[in-house]
Amino acid sequence: MIELVNRPAVRLVLVGLLALALQTTFFADLTVFGVVAQVMLCLAAASGVSGGSERGALTGFALGLMFDLVLSSPLGLTALVYGLAGFLAGYIESLSVERPWWLSAAVVGAASASATIAHPVLANWIGLEGWLTVRVLRIALVVSLVNAILAPLAVPLMRWALAIRRMERLSPPPEIFL
Fold it and tell me: What is the residue extent of each domain of the chain?
């Protein structure tokens, strides 16, 4: 049983289901300046920070697909946006050699802001009217600040969920040696 729980896919599903339950119950009622905190998006960006762009994209897509199953938006839209957020966070994090905690929080915040803006843009692009308003900028600002505050908790959680070892996390990215 322990070997089953130690697999990254099982850990990701467990963390994702717990975060989805918190997102749809507790955080749906908890608003900051009238904006709902996006915990699933925070975990998608944190997976990119902790595991790199490829793991971030795959994990973000999986978390977004979980969230899509409870939303009324088109299936796959949130999965695409969260996958892009995970990829972007992993790519930005790979550009730095040193990785202090505050830089990880800033990267999670920036990826969250870009995903929050990209979501209504893509929704408008596929024909859903009314999603793209000026209010999106305020929402992106609040979501990025909340996710940057949650990042010091989310990054180690996603490091555990993706089973990233210490030496793998501390090694420099392979792009440096090219």
Answer: 2-162
